[in-house]
Amino acid sequence: MSHSEPNSPFQHIIRSLSEKATVKLNVGQNAEWAFSLIRAALKKIESDISAETQSIDKRISVKYTERGPLDVEFRISDDIIIFSLHTDAFTFPDGHPLWKHSGMRAEHGKGYFGMISIYNFLTDSLKFNRVNDQGVLIARVFIDKNRHFFMEGKKQLSTLFNDPGQVLFSEENAKIVAEHLIAHCLDFDIIAPPFDQVRIISVQEMIEKSLSSVVSTGKRLGFRLQSDNDLTS
Fold this sequence. Notes:
Number of domains: 1
Radius of gyration: 22 Å
Distance between the termini: 44 Å
Helix content: 25-40%
């Protein structure tokens, strides 16, 4: 089959590249740009909170750290919030609520998004290398080729920016997103595990691990974002 024939595999490759490659590259660049705005917002928030808390209690710790080009860490009190940029462009399955929004299928390439995931850990989990402790995915930010974005997450985070294709990402919205995520993490406390769940440990566990690492610690938030009723898109 000749390369010039419309239905040849070669022409299919060219069409696929023409329809998708540029869109995905634009989505990736926009996600990197949005991530840079979130980093800048977190730096400013760190400075502002530190200034305010000095008169409250000098032991309160607030620290912004870049863990690499794709991950940043925000430590505040006993919480660590990690923002992680994904390098791929994502779309959603046919049954996803995203497709119910008007115009999502009308414009070519609107169904591809860059993604920033936000996780919550306990500060002492990383400080003392408690490998059994649990982190929690609390939200995800999706940004499209036109720099429109939406966010899915837990509780109030699911309603903050939940209309795809309507709101442009910006410095102000990066600040709003970051502050809401930090406030959300501070609203949840550590819940003691049920007594019967942790009352027995093996001798091997005691020998190989410290007691603090045997008991899995986490906040009262679930991992099942996709199935929770309070998640919307």
